[in-house]
Amino acid sequence: MNKYELALVLNAKIEDDARAAALERAKEYITRAGGTVTEVEEWGKKRLAYEVQKMNEGYYYFIQFEADTKAPAAVEQDVRIMDNVLRFLCVRKDEA
Asked: What pLDDT shows up at residue 80?
């Protein structure tokens, strides 16, 4: 099992419960792909480096998980079509 990190930037204009539902849905996609979520970091509302979909701010979340090598592609495919996700990135973490 490899260690991965999924970075999500969610729309800052949605309600707290909708944002929590989007985060839970992302964690659900990870478990459905065969991974196990180990940690979730919430960085809160931050200013974006550049305007995305006419928005200047977003909520940042970093989800660490362990999964096999095919899981990140499946997770990205599901997250890509989620509403309220401005940007996402899934990367493999080094064992260092």
From this structure: 93
Question: What is the model's pTM?
Answer: 0.90
Which stretches in the chain have pLDDT values below 50?
none
Distance of CA 58 to the CA centre of its chain: 12
| Count of the separate structural domains present in the chain | 1
Angle between helices 16-32 and 71-80 (to 10 degrees): 150
For residue 43, give its domain range. Answer: 2-92
| CATH code where residue 22 lies | 3.30.70.60
